[in-house]
Design a protein that fits this description.
Length: 478
């Protein structure tokens, strides 16, 4: 096991273990007035975890009984996702609304939103493309999200199949549409609630995750065909353009190609091509839609915002277009080592421990914002964030998150000696380091959830409660 493998797995284990332990006692919370805070855990979390454990065990046992039929979780995902979209007809709010309005008004931007928010233009163009093809209905956007989510689920299963296969090369892979291991991932992934909720989010998260997981799949296939490499570079570039934090995955993939696949020249060509493609595409859409008057916020503005004491790096809307490196240096000098480390600790715990990816805002919608139409569900989640159903949903989301993270720790320990998993560890470490200095929202980690699921299922396979619990009960009887 290489030094990088040891270091990356150690960081992942320490990070996930710390979050699981701390999250039992302290809850990172998001307030709908758009700020983060911490609260003490209530006793209901344990009950929620027990419920999540029992449901997961029951459904995975059902999968085992019907021999992991892959059709069942796919149909289950589609039906539950469609039902959720019908029952919670959220309308765009905040940046989503601006993006959707621009897309439905032929990119007419009298308010100058694109001039200042240049990095959001690819998202606007993505939504605009759907509008041109499918019309202005919100359902068109959400159905595309559902399809992207389904593709993400399938690709995650395929990645899990390759990672758990003894053979690395695609030529030696099983010929079945889904292997047993892949089907297990379909079953576990179909249960992941934030993936259902985010189908309501008309923005870039869902398509960006789909593109990034497609990129990972093409890479770990380890196929040397030129056309596969070209497609991999194109997909990598597109996911980077759509979501700028995609550079984390690009770097992780380049490291994986360089250190594990031993294709050093290709890794350099890959990284250089993706970055060049990003620069050229950014230049094109900026000149085409904004011209020379673009005033996008510099990276230093995001970094300085990432070091604010009051909201420990949360986006506090203090962006300035003239922020420089020296402004960031001054902020760090002003705070001093102890305060900087305190902010790092708080922001890391909050973003990794919040546990819902802010699904309450981006999946259920603002409590005080009307829905597209009323349903049997909306009357129980409207008016206040303190409605009982919202509280229960958030509790279940957090319980599921902690449950999966616990098994992700086991999965990481199990996989630490298998270099083929290194791309996953590099990715998690990249997100961890990036959000030490960048401004934070817990939804920014949504792009990591397929990696999270893969490690969780790998840990589940190592310590399968379906097999272990009956043995423990029998031992107690003795």
């Amino acid at each position: 096991m290489s030094f990088l493998q040891k270091l990356s797995t150690s960081i992942v284990v320490i990070l996930f273990t710390t979050i699981v332990v701390l999250d039992v006692f302290v809850q990172p919370e998001y307030h709908f007035d758009d700020y983060p805070y911490f609260d003490y855990r209530g006793g209901f979390l344990l009950l929620a975890i027990i419920v999540v454990v029992l449901i997961t065990i029951g459904i995975m046992k059902l999968g085992e009984i019907i021999k992991w039929n892959p059709v069942v979780p796919i149909v289950f995902y589609v039906i539950t996702a469609a039902a959720f979209l019908f029952l919670v007809p959220m309308i765009p709010v905040s940046d989503q609304k601006i993006v959707f309005d621009l897309a439905t008004n032929d990119l007419n931007d009298p308010g100058g939103y694109m001039i200042v928010n240049v990095n959001v233009i690819p998202t606007i163009l993505y939504v605009y493309g759907i509008v041109k093809v499918c019309g202005t209905s919100l359902w068109a956007q959400k159905i595309v999200n559902l399809i992207c989510g389904l593709l993400t689920l399938v690709l995650t299963a395929k990645i899990y199949g390759v990672l758990t296969s003894k053979e690395v090369r695609i030529a030696d892979a099983p010929k079945a549409l889904f292997t047993e291991y892949e089907s297990k991932m379909l079953w576990m992934g179909a249960l992941f609630l934030p993936a259902l909720f985010y189908n309501n989010h008309i923005y870039n998260e869902v398509p960006a995750v789909m593109l990034s997981i497609l990129m990972l799949y093409l890479v770990i296939r380890n196929d040397d065909a030129i056309w596969i490499r070209v497609i991999t570079i194109i997909i990598s570039c597109l996911q980077f353009v759509l979501r700028q934090s995609g550079i984390i995955l690009v770097i992780a993939v380049a490291m994986y190609i360089f250190f594990y696949q031993k294709k050093k020249l290709y890794s350099i060509i890959y990284l250089a091509s993706v970055i060049l493609g990003y620069v050229l595409i950014e230049k094109w859409y900026t000149l085409a839609l904004v011209g020379e008057g673009a005033q996008g916020y510099p990276v230093w503005s995001f970094i300085r915002m990432g070091m604010n004491e009051a909201e420990f790096g949360f986006q506090d809307h203090s962006h300035t277009s003239d922020c420089t490196l020296w402004d960031c240096v001054e902020r760090y000098k002003e705070y001093g080592p102890l305060k900087v480390l305190t902010v790092y600790a708080k922001k890391t715990f909050w973003i990794w421990g919040e546990g819902t990816y802010q699904s309450g805002r981006y999946g259920l919608g603002y409590p005080t914002t009307p829905y597209d139409y009323d349903t049997v569900v909306t009357k129980y989640i409207s008016d206040s964030p303190d409605r009982l159903l919202r509280i229960v949903i958030n509790m279940v989301l957090r319980a599921q998150y902690l449950f999966y993270m616990f098994f992700a720790v086991i999965g990481t320990l199990r996989a630490k000696k298998r270099n083929v998993f290194s791309v996953l560890f590099f990715t998690v470490c990249g997100f961890f380091l990036f959000f030490l200095i960048w401004e934070i929202k817990s939804r920014y980690l949504y792009g990591l959830y397929p990696v999270f699921l893969i490690l969780a299922l790998y840990g589940w396979e190592e310590y399968n409660p379906i097999e272990k619990i009956p043995k423990i009960i029998n031992n107690l009887k003795i």
